[in-house]
Design goal:
Number of helices: 37
Strand order of the largest sheet: 3-4-5-7-6
Distance between the termini: 108 Å
Helix content: 55-70%
Oligomer: single chain
Strand content: under 5%
Largest sheet: 5 strands, mixed
Shape: elongated
Structural class: mainly alpha
Length: 776
């Protein structure tokens, strides 16, 4: 009997002091970290210590930490002990092991990616380390805490852990869908800026504050788990543990702590928009402050940035652009849209996360524009919104990025000084055009510089619309089934498009245009794009504040790191303002001249020509101006080069006109200086034209009209006279003198005709007629 009882008795469990926590989960986690980090060394943007790498490791690390913690805690929590009182102490020890182990494991990806700096330049290890601390370090602690809570609360802790993770990620996805913001703050990955072309991503106080909130929530998870440990048994069900947890929270001795945590979390929740964690439509509308309602729009704007006359004109522009787009789609005018106009790039970035990128959310019927880019982006974004009925359910757009952006480009008005087909033909002729089939996907579209992707996709979509009609384009927009809609495969359609482009005559000047506009690397091909973009902003601020020595130094450092066009441009502009002309002529000889494609730097030829002129090398300056004039990259550059050529030709004694171009004085001051020259020299047509343009920029359209009407540049420069007529038409349009404006636009085609100019002028004529018909 005694022997039977002895055989049936359970063997005593090891004491706490001899129990060891298994290291197997940590070893497995270390292997995963190593594999992920090594894979990242082969992927652009992820191959150095910066935001992208840190965000990925934060997301992966929070999941690894949670699973690892569950395995470590579970092995101890569900073990047999002589007394349940020993369980909390054992679990606390296991939690400490899990937390320390998970943090130490982060050294694996940190060391691997830091070592990759021997092969891939890392412009700021310190900034990358700061991101690594704020993102993976905090996320791993949060994952550990959440894993611990799941391990002691649920019978299936891993399942529940991933349910919570799915809820957290799902919440961010829902926010991105229902609110205007494209950014998200999340306890698992820290911060996601959204999919935009913005390169600027600074470390902000908002991110620091949110990570402090993450640590607070992690501490709350640990505390909740400890209450479960103390107030329940491992054998209890999850429901029983939940009931005892609620009772434990209000137990004497815990009430104050419970209240403090709840108040803190409630405060963060209520102030989440003010703190920058989220940005709802209501919050943005309240912050902007005013709205204008038209037939098809509710326009939200800041009254401090636009006068009543300006916002009324903007409202009419919205209606006109939508009218033309709906006509192209053959849609009834029943659409109703919300348009958000932000007073600055910075405020737009604060509210929705995209500063330099205008966006549309077709499923919400929203467009978001910075006031500075309103004129150039309005129609493009409205096409995205108007195409919503043809898109897939839920997202109300196509899954093909090439079709989404190509359709907007095809219907979105002019782009540059040539037609989309002319640009595409030139890119094809000079070997810049990639396989457009790849551009149809998101990653393929983003793998090229934005100018290349947008123009080629726009040309292709415009060809399909002109050749096969809009109806088939709207069908392919939803299905992407080319064979089913067109009866031809995508490859066959591309071949047709190529044959069409090959009919265009490509001039030698187009080579310069291609090199200047389309030989630019995408963000994936840039060196340290995030770090250098932030430094570039600092340098630009110094330049705007006229702190030219600081700006030149900052731009020079940026250029030495990444050799970007933007940095070189800033450096040369700063040096020119300081009168350091040899810096510009030296760059012309040592950087531009030896380059395989020197026309990549063509927009810089204006500043370089000014430096040559100041050094007494007028012939060399004229050659630089003529190169950019004939390339015709943009109206402002063509205008700048043409005016300087006329000034050089008109020069009488020394360099009397050069100070006008080198001056950094505001337009109001420069206009007075021009008046002094005109009073002394008599009427000089190109100088009058320059004064008229200054008055336009100052918003004084009435005076600009009076001045520009006195100018006749037809014999001196037909291209400049065409611009004069067009700018005169634009000022008359803003003054509401639509008949006169229409005449000026037509006359501009007499001075210089091109297919692109005709497209632009036809749009202006339609705009004038529509405004006149709808004038109230």
């Amino acid at each position: 009997m005694a022997d039977d009882q002895q055989g049936e008795a359970s063997p005593p469990s090891p004491r706490l002091s001899t129990r060891r926590v298994s290291a197997h989960p940590l070893r497995a986690a270390g292997i995963v970290y190593a594999v992920v980090a090594i894979a990242c060394t082969r992927i652009p943007l992820l191959n150095y210590l910066g935001y992208e790498f840190s965000a990925l490791i934060a997301l992966v690390g929070s999941c690894i930490a949670g699973v690892t913690t569950i395995r470590i805690i579970g092995g101890v929590y569900h073990a047999s002990y002589p007394d349940d009182a020993e369980v909390p102490a054992a679990v606390r020890r296991a939690l400490g092991t899990a937390a320390i182990g998970n943090i130490v494991l982060l050294l694996i990806p940190l060391v691997i990616i830091s070592a990759n700096a021997f092969f891939i330049r890392n412009c700021s290890w310190g900034e990358g380390a700061a991101f690594f601390f704020l993102l993976p370090f905090v996320s791993v602690l949060f994952g550990t805490a959440l894993g611990f809570l799941c391990a002691v609360h649920y019978r299936h802790p891993r399942l529940m852990f991933f349910v919570y993770c799915a809820i957290l990620v799902g919440y961010s996805i829902v926010l991105g869908y229902v609110t205007p913001a494209i950014f998200s703050y999340n306890f698992l990955y820290g911060y996601f800026p959204g999919l935009t072309y913005d390169e600027i991503l600074p470390l902000t106080g908002t991110l620091v504050l949110f990570r402090l909130l993450t640590l607070l929530l992690a501490a709350a998870c640990v505390w909740l788990g400890m209450i479960i440990l103390e107030d329940s048994s491992p054998r209890d069900s999850a429901v029983v543990k939940g009931i005892r947890l609620v009772g434990g929270l209000v137990a004497p001795g815990r009430r104050i702590r419970t209240a403090g945590i709840m108040v803190a979390l409630a405060a963060f929740t209520m102030l989440r928009c003010e703190l920058g964690f989220e940005s709802t439509a209501g919050y943005i509308r309240e912050s902007l402050g005013s709205e204008l309602r038209t037939e098809h729009f509710v326009i939200y704007y800041a009254p401090s940035s636009m006068s009543e006359d300006e916002i009324r004109r903007v409202g009419k522009e919205h209606e006109f652009e939508l009218h033309q787009i709906l006509e192209a789609f053959a849609l009834p005018p029943t659409i109703r849209l919300s348009s958000y106009i932000y007073p600055s790039v910075e405020s737009k970035r604060r509210f929705i996360g995209a500063g330099n990128t205008d966006i549309t959310k077709p499923w919400n019927g929203e467009i978001h524009l910075a006031q500075q880019s309103l004129e150039g982006s309005l129609r493009h974004e409205l096409v995205h919104a108007a195409a919503a009925p043809f898109g897939l359910p839920v997202i109300r757009a196509s899954l093909s990025t090439g079709l989404v952006e190509g359709l907007a480009m095809a219907l979105g008005g002019e782009w540059g000084t040539r037609t989309l087909h002319e640009y595409a033909a030139a890119m094809r002729a000079y070997g810049v055009a990639p396989d457009i089939k790849g551009l149809m996907s998101f990653w393929g579209f983003a793998s090229q510089h934005s100018s290349v992707s947008y123009v080629l996709a726009g040309s292709f979509c415009k060809y399909l619309i002109d050749r096969y009609g809009m109806r088939k384009m709207t069908l392919i927009y939803r299905t992407t089934n080319y064979a089913g809609v067109y009866g031809r495969t995508l490859d066959q359609l591309i071949a047709e498009w190529h044959a069409y482009l090959d009919r265009y005559t490509v001039e030698e000047e187009d080579r310069d245009c291609v090199d200047a506009l389309f030989r630019r690397p995408p963000i994936f091909g840039k060196i340290c794009p995030r770090v250098l973009a932030r430094r570039t902003v600092d340098a630009r601020v110094a330049l705007v504040r006229r702190n030219y020595p600081a700006a030149e130094s900052l731009f020079a450092d940026i250029y030495s790191e990444g050799h970007s066009y933007e940095a070189l441009s800033g450096r040369l502009t700063s040096a020119l303002r300081r009168g350091r002309y040899r810096v510009l002529t030296g760059a012309l000889d040592t950087i531009v001249g030896p380059d395989e494609h020197p026309a990549r730097f063509l927009p810089l030829f204006i500043a370089m020509g000014d430096a040559c002129w100041a050094e007494g090398e007028q012939a060399r300056a004229a050659a630089l101006y003529e190169r950019i004039y004939h390339a015709d990259l943009s109206d402002p550059l063509t205008e700048a080069a043409g005016i300087r050529l006329l000034a050089l030709h008109d020069e009488r004694e020394g360099s009397p006109f050069l100070p006008l171009f080198l001056s950094d004085a505001p337009d109001s001051v420069r206009a007075v200086a021009i008046d002094s020259v005109l009073e002394a020299r008599g009427e000089i047509p190109w100088l009058l034209y320059l004064k008229g343009r200054m008055l336009m920029r100052l918003g004084n359209d009435a005076r600009a009209v009076n001045v520009l009407k006195r100018v006749d540049l037809l014999n001196a420069d037909r291209a400049l006279d065409a611009l004069r007529q067009r700018y005169l038409g634009e000022s008359l349009y803003r003054l509401g003198r639509y008949d006169e404006a229409r005449t000026c636009f037509w006359t501009s085609l007499d001075a210089e005709y091109s297919d692109a100019a005709e497209e632009r002028i036809n749009t202006w004529i339609d705009r004038c007629e529509w405004m006149q018909a709808h004038a109230r």
